[in-house]
Amino acid sequence: MGRAIPRSRLGVFRRSWIAAEIALVGLLIGSTGVLGAVRDRWDTLSEPPAARGARIYQMQCFGCHGGESGGAITDRPPKHNARGHTWHHADCELAAMIGRGIAPDMPAYGGRLDAEEIRAVITHIRTMWTAEQRTQQEDLTRARC
Ligand code: HEC
């Protein structure tokens, strides 16, 4: 006659299995979270700065500042393209305005974008200017930054 396992010990056995299963599920969820974060970081690291700048601009700035065409110098919010006046500012001035914002209507992006992302956005904005505007703005940047 086999010896029956006492009921109380079975309960402990079952409970520890449940605990192990919960731990395993937690581990799986946790590791996909970690892996997802690593993958996102890798994507942003391997993304060329111009593409990264364009993506950020599209998501965070386009709605107010518009795209490559249209608009007038008097628009508010100002257009960043060749019809606007953004190219009258040196790189360090643009970075400061983007980072700190301009009260009350231009949000501050310092907490959301790091210095590299702000540089990438400026690189994208530059693609909307004429060659002449780009050259003049480079001179300004050399003189003021
Ligand atoms: C909610 C609307 C809004 C969003 C979103 C926004 N801006 Fe602005 N921005 C403004 C307004 C309004 C001004 C004009 C502020 C002033 O002159 O008082 C401005 C001004 C600026 C200026 C200075 C003026 C110029 O043309 O040189 C820069 C640079 C700028 N924004 C960059 C950005 C960038 C880059 C983003 C995205 C990361 C962004 N803004 C997102 C509303 C916005």
How is this structure best described in words?
By secondary structure, the chain is mainly α. It has two domains: 1-46; 48-144, Cytochrome Bc1 Complex, Chain D, domain 2 (Orthogonal Bundle), CATH 1.10.760.10. Helices cover 63% and strands 0% of the residues. The protein is built from six helices and no strands. The chain has helices at residues 7-46, 49-60, 62-65, 91-100, 115-126, 131-144. Helix 2 (49-60) crosses helix 5 (115-126) and helix 4 packs across helix 5 (115-126). The mean pLDDT is 85. The structure holds heme C (HEC). Heme C binds next to helix 3 and helix 4.
CATH superfamily of the largest domain: Cytochrome c-like domain
Largest sheet: none
- Uncertain residue segments: none
Report the mean per-residue pLDDT as an integer: 85
CATH level-1 class of the largest domain: Mainly Alpha
* Percent range for β-strand residues: under 5%
Summarize the structure.
The chain is 63% helix and 0% strand.
Question: Which short descriptors sum up this protein?
Answer:
145 residues, mainly alpha, Cytochrome Bc1 Complex, Chain D, domain 2, 0% strand, elongated, binds heme C
